[in-house]
Amino acid sequence: MEKIKIITDSCLDIPEELIQKNDIEVMPVLINFGDETYRDREEINFNTMQEKIEREGVLPTTAQITPVRFEEKFKEYLDKGYKIVAVLMSSGMSGTYNSACIAKDMIGSDDIVLIDTRVITSAQGFFVLKACELRDKGYTAEEIKDVIERLIPKMNASLCFESLDNIVRGGRISKTAGAIGTVLGIKVILGFKDGMMGVKDKARGSKKAIKKIISDYESSNPNKEEPVMLIEVESPEIKAELKKYLDENKIKYIETTAGCAVGIHSGKGACGLFYLTN
Fold it and tell me: Could you tell me the pTM of the whole model?
């Protein structure tokens, strides 16, 4: 059986206990407040970041993981006899995956396998956990990649946002799409399309947004064998109703929240589901 190390970036947004349990190497994205730089999940968390944003009135930026950092990390595990499977955020939303490709070319090793998940946050986290599951079942690095790349097109998202201001400012969606979210009382529902986030629907008020998220899930022919990822950033009302639905219908789920790298763009008041379809 191959000795495999699963590596990812800090946009995976899954609970810390699952990271530790599955021995996942998480490389932090950098969070920049002007000249001050912090390593996501290590030197700053979402709550301290929000306090700093509110105190200073400045929205931080993120910096992708550089090829040099990937090269150092890859060599660390190659030298220990590992094969590497790096499960990374969408190349459509960050240059991190491209950095990993450059690092692999610099090293020139076939023992590094890279996966562009074409998603971000807990959807990416789902694929990281799936890679760990396959590793533990004895799959080779290339077999892990083959399985996950077949699953990537089946990942769906239905996420409700209070405001799209931060996402627009961060360039994750267009100003035109973001304008929908400025209408008073309108909740915007986002999903994935072509490796990017995009507006898939809108609803007036939280109750209709919850109904829309649930109807999206039910109509998608969801894969009930795999867990749903329930993510929330200071949106307790919507989270409570989605949890109630999942519990009442005995649907497996993993409850989590956003880290800094994703939280910069989501802002407060975001909640929704990531799930695999058939």
Answer: 0.91
Rounded to 5 degrees, what are φ and ψ at 198?
-150, 155
Q: What is the mean pLDDT of the chain?
A: 90
pLDDT at 171: 47
Those residues whose C-beta lies under 8 Å from the C-beta of residue 244, and which sit 6 or more positions away, are none
Q: What pLDDT band is residue 165 in, cutting at 50, 70 and 90?
A: low
pLDDT tens track for 73-128: 999 999 999 999 999 999 999 999 999 999 999 999 999 999 999 999 999 999 99
**In this structure, which amino acid lies at residue 138?**
G
| Separation between Cα atoms, residue 94 and residue 78, nearest integer Å | 25
Residue 265, Cα to own-chain centre: how many angstroms?
12
Nearest to 222 by CA among 259, 179, 186, 275: 275
- CB distance 223 to 253 below 8 Å: no
Residue 167 or residue 137, greater confidence: 137
Question: How many Cα neighbours within 13 Å face the side chain of 185?
Answer: 4
SS3 for the chain is CCCEEEEEECCCCCCHHHHHHCCCEEECCEEEECCEEEEECCCECHHHHHHHHHHHCCCCEEECCCHHHHHHHHHHHHCCCCEEEEEECCCCCCCHHHHHHHHHHHHCCCCEEEEECCCCHHHHHHHHHHHHHHHHCCCCHHHHHHHHHHHHHHEEEEEEECCCHHHHHCCCCCHHHHHHHHCCCEEEEEEEECCEEEEEEEEECHHHHHHHHHHHHHHCCECCCCCEEEEEECCHHHHHHHHHHHHHCCCCEEEEECCHHHHHHHCCCEEEEEEEEC
